[in-house]
Amino acid sequence: MLEDGPIELVPDPPAPELPGTVVLRRDADAAMTALATDLLLQAKACARQFGSFHLALSGGSTPMPMYRRLLYDPLFRDLPWRQTHVWMVDERRVPHGDERSNFGEIGELLRDHSGIPAEQLHAMPIEDDGDVQYERELRSVLEWRERGHDRLDFVVLGMGGELHTASLFPGSPAIEAPDDRLIALNDGPAVTPPPRITMTYTLLNASRSLAVLVTGAKKRPAVERLIAGGLSRQEAPILGIDPVGGELRWYIDHDACPGSEHRQAEISQ
């Protein structure tokens, strides 16, 4: 039998103070729903205005459930796949059939279920000149738009526990890629093997919308480090994401927020 008495509501954790806009949701699924909804709105607006939508996707286990929802959830059935070009934010330099390949998993999912034209799925080449090839392809496709709109429309990013994003790892050479480069190879002791190819800050920061998805308690220490401040982009590459004429939004769940561990402790008492 339940005892009578007042019900104590435990407050939600405060949204972390990060550059850009923070979209805080109760759990990972809700955070992904918010991100997917904003992606859909941007896709429809760009397809209507420009006749195309240029979307750059990151690999990894965190965003894959959202990519599946874009295909299967009725909420997102209006996403204009036929007018969408999908680009890869970064890639491991392994064959696309390798289980470590970002495009291998994402490309298969979209190719089989989205109806997107095959030529609009842009895999990153893994050859030694893959950065030059991909940059040439990117410029060639985007140049069909009028000047000023020849940029990516929506970029989905993640953040690793060591504060990397894309394949820009702390202390890695691609962080200091020349400003005129859109794509860079990244290798060396600071890069988690295998060697990588990645979009540069120049390309990412020119994008119309940048979305960083951060969920789960394992990411909480990384968020705490960002809030504490005093880090350079060499130490925390995610801080190099600073859009020029675009918008940066963080989609974060309660578990990734500092203070949520105290809230969980109160709930369990």
Description:
By secondary structure, the protein is of the alpha/beta class. The chain has one domain: Rossmann fold. The protein is built from seven helices and ten strands. It has a seven-stranded parallel beta sheet, covered by helices on one side. The protein has a three-stranded antiparallel beta sheet with strand order 4-8-7. Helix 1 (28-50) crosses helix 2 and helix 2 runs parallel beside helix 3 (102-113). The radius of gyration is 19 Å and the shape is globular. 38% of the residues are buried.
How would you summarize what this structure contains?
The chain has 269 residues and is an alpha/beta fold. Helices cover 30% and strands 17% of the residues.
Indicate the topology.
Elements: E1 21-25, H1 28-50, E2 53-57, H2 64-72, E3 84-88, E4 90-92, H3 102-113, E5 121-122, H4 130-142, E6 154-157, E7 183-186, E8 196-199, H5 201-205, E9 209-214, H6 220-228, E10 247-253, H7 260-268
Parallel strand pairs: 1-10, 2-3, 2-6, 3-5, 6-9, 9-10
Antiparallel strand pairs: 4-8, 7-8
Helix share, percent? 25-40%
CATH class: Alpha Beta
**Total DSSP E strands:** 10
How many domains is the backbone divided into?
Answer: 1
Q: Beta-sheet strand percentage? A: 15-25%
Say what the CATH topology is: Rossmann fold
Number of alpha- plus pi-helical segments: 7
Neighbour order of strands in the largest sheet: 1-10-9-6-2-3-5
